[in-house]
C-alpha cells in the first residue's frame, strides 16, 4: 500500500530522454533526461534511471540527441511595442506643435482609409501654454471629420481634436459616465482593432518560442499598450495557451515621475491584478529612464529619489535605463542612499551602455553600493532587437549566462528559473544544432529552437507548427 502511494506521487507527467542537456547547474553540468511533474523538474540525470518515473499516463519524448538549454529569459523585451507596430503614429519628445501637425498631415494623406488617427510620444509639456480648446483647434487645422487622439510620452496628456472630443462626450452620456478619463477616452473612441492585436500577440509568442525564449520581461512600453497585452495574456492563461512567462513593469516618464501617490497606486494595482498568477504573469517592477546631461523638462531628481525610496520600501524592484554619465552617477548615488536607509532586499537593474560604467575622475563605481544591483546593456533599442546581451559577450557561455542564470537573478526568480535542476520550474528549449559549435558568439541570434517546454509541457514544436501553417495554406486555397 505504501509502495503504491510512493509510486503514484513520483510518477511524472512528462519525461524527456536521450538529450544532451546543458543544465547550468555546476553540480551536474550535463544530463540525458529530465522528468517533470506539476510544472517542475522532479528528476535530472540519465535516461535509464528516468524510467522509474514513468507511469501509464506519462508522456515520453525522445529528444534523439538534440541539445537542451534552460529556458531563455528575454530581459530586453518590447513585445507590447511590437504588437502595436504600425498601429499608431510615432511622435518624438523633440517635436514642436508645427512638427506634429506636419507629421499628422503626411500620415493622413497616405492613410485616408483609417477611421481614427492615433499617435504617441510627444513631450508632456508641449501644450502647457494652451487651453484644451486651443489645443483641439490646432488639431482641427489638420483634420475635422475624423477623430485624432495623441498621447504624450508618459501618458500624462491626451491631445484630441473636436471630432474625437464629441464622440467621447456622446459615449459618456450614453454610459452615464460623469468624468471622462484617458482610459475611457481610449475605449470609447477605440483607435485599435483588438482582434488584430490579439492575433499579433499570439504570433509574437510563437516567434519568441522559435528563439528559445520561455520568459519575457517587459523592458518598457506605454502603460495602455502593456495593459492591452496583459489582458490578452490573461485570456491566453485562462485558455491554457501561454507560451512564455511574462514579467511586467510599470514605465513612468516625464511629469508622471513627480506624482508619487498616483504611481504607487498604479504599480500596486498591476501587482495585485496578477497576484494569483505569480508563476505565469507577474508585475513587480518600476521602470524609469534617466537622462541628465540634457535635463528632461519638469524632471526633479529629488522626486525621482523619493519615488525610488517609496517603491523600495514597498518591496518593488526598480529597472533604470541610464542614458548618460551624469545620470549613471546620480542613479548610483540614489541606490546608495536607498541601501543605507535599510532597504537592501529589492533588486535594481541598471541598463546602460558598457562605456558609461567605466570609472572616471568624477565617478567610481567601486565607491557606490552595488548590493542586489545588476548591470545590463541599455534597453533603449529598436523593439525587435532581442539580443542586446550578446553585444558585450565574448563567448557562447557568456551569452547563456546572460539569458539564464544572470537574467533569473536580476528578476529575483533564481530559485525558480535559470537552471535545469530538481525543484525548479520545468522550462527549457531544444535545439537541433549544438550552440557551443558556433564559429562566433554573434551567430547565437540565428539559432532556431525545435521545441520549447513551459512547466514540463510542450508549447512549441517546429514540426507541428510547420504542419499547421501548411494546413492553413492548403485549406485557404480554391481547389
Describe the structure in your own words:
There is one protein chain. The protein has 479 residues and is of the alpha/beta class. Among the domains are: 88-189, Diaminopimelate Epimerase, Chain A, domain 1 (Roll), CATH 3.10.310; 199-418, Metal-dependent hydrolases (TIM Barrel), CATH 3.20.20. 35% of the residues lie in helices and 22% in strands. The chain is built from 15 helices and 21 strands. The protein has helices at 2-9, 47-50, 79-83, 97-110, 132-140, 162-175, 182-189, 194-210, 223-238, 260-273, 301-313, 325-340, 396-403, 405-410, 462-475, and strands at 14-17, 20-22, 30-31, 33-37, 40-45, 59-62, 67-70, 72-77, 89-90, 117-122, 148-152, 158-160, 213-218, 245-252, 281-290, 317-322, 348-351, 373-376, 428-431, 449-454, 457-461. The strands form four sheets. It has a seven-stranded parallel beta sheet. A six-stranded mixed beta sheet has the order 3-2-7-19-20-21. Helix 6 packs across helix 7. It is globular, with a radius of gyration of 25 Å. The N and C termini lie far apart (61 Å). The relative contact order is 0.14. Keywords: Coiled coil, Hydrolase. GO terms for molecular function: hydrolase activity, acting on carbon-nitrogen (but not peptide) bonds. Residues 60-329, 384-460 form the Amidohydrolase domain.
Descriptive labels:
479 residues; 15 helices; alpha/beta; single chain; 6-stranded mixed β-sheet; Diaminopimelate Epimerase, Chain A, domain 1; TIM Barrel; 21 strands; 7-stranded parallel β-sheet; disordered N terminus
